Structures are given as C-alpha cells and as structure tokens.
C-alpha cells in the first residue's frame, strides 16, 4: 500500500476545475497512485523527484538503497478515477528494489 502525505491542496482560481496537490509518497516500483488518494477526480500530470536524505533499507540485502530515477505512466489521463503507475530505476537501468520516498506535484481536477 502506498503511504502518502499531502502538504498542500490548492485550487489556483475559484470556480476553476484545476487543482494542484503537493506532498510526498513512500512506494516501490510498479505501485499505482490513484486519483482518489490525492482527493482528485482525475490526474492529468504528475511530477516525481527523490526526497534527499530519506532512504529505506533494501529488505533483501539490508543495504541502503541508491537514489532511484522515477518514471510514471498515467492511465486514461484526464478521465475520472484514473491512476498513475510509478516505475523506479537504479543507476544501472535495472528496476529498483525496496521502497523509497518521492516528492510529488500533481495536477488534476
């Protein structure tokens, strides 16, 4: 299950459907962030960056994780109740193991 902390939920213009959500999320590769997790009807864009200084231990080896490179795919962008699947990559372009903290900014309705 994705652990999510929302720090800001902002509607730039009253009456507008656009919403900006900022926070951080703990997840592992191939986990999904659903629009309802962000209190959004739909996710239109999602920007992810690693949280500096927040690492978890690899559960298999007990070694501190390397900084991952996140990529995402937004399923049915702009449609109600959609989700974004996040993939994490290591420096060697292999899929990252373990969970990591990522900052995010989401744009949706």
CATH architectural label: Sandwich
Query: Per CATH, what is the topology?
Result: Immunoglobulin-like
How would you sum up the global shape?
elongated
Low-confidence stretches: none
How would you state the average pLDDT, rounded? 85
Query: How much helical structure, as a percent, in the residues?
Result: under 10%
State the CATH class. Mainly Beta
How far apart lie the N and C ends?
23 Å
* Helix/strand order, N-terminal first: EEEEEEE
Look at the helices and sheets and give the structural class: mainly beta
Question: Strand order of the main beta sheet, please?
Answer: 1-2-7-4
Number of strands: 7
Quick one: biggest sheet?
4 strands, antiparallel
Structure description:
The chain is 0% helix and 50% strand. It is mostly beta strands. The strands form two sheets. The chain has a four-stranded antiparallel β-sheet, with no helix packed on it. Strands 3-6-5 form a three-stranded antiparallel β-sheet, with no helix packed on it. Strand 1 (3-10) and strand 2 (19-28) form a beta hairpin. It is elongated.
Structural features:
109 residues, mainly beta, Immunoglobulin-like, 4-stranded antiparallel β-sheet, 3-stranded antiparallel β-sheet, elongated
At a glance:
The chain is mainly beta and 109 residues long. It contains no helices and seven strands.
Which helices and strands occur, and which strands form pairs?
Blueprint lengths: L2 E8 L8 E10 L2 E4 L8 E8 L18 E7 L7 E7 L9 E10 L1
Antiparallel strand pairs: 1-2, 2-7, 3-6, 4-7, 5-6
């Amino acid at each position: 299950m994705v652990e999510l902390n929302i720090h800001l939920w902002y509607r730039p213009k009253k009456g507008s459907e656009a919403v900006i959500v900022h926070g951080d999320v703990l997840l592992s590769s191939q986990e999904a962030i659903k629009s309802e997790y962000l209190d959004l009807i739909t996710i239109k864009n999602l920007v992810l960056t690693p949280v500096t200084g927040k690492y978890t231990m690899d559960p298999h080896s007990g070694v501190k994780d390397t900084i991952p490179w996140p990529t995402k795919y937004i399923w049915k962008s702009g449609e109600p109740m959609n989700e974004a699947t996040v993939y994490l990559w290591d420096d060697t372009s292999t899929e990252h193991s373990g969970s990591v903290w990522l900052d995010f900014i989401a744009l949706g309705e």
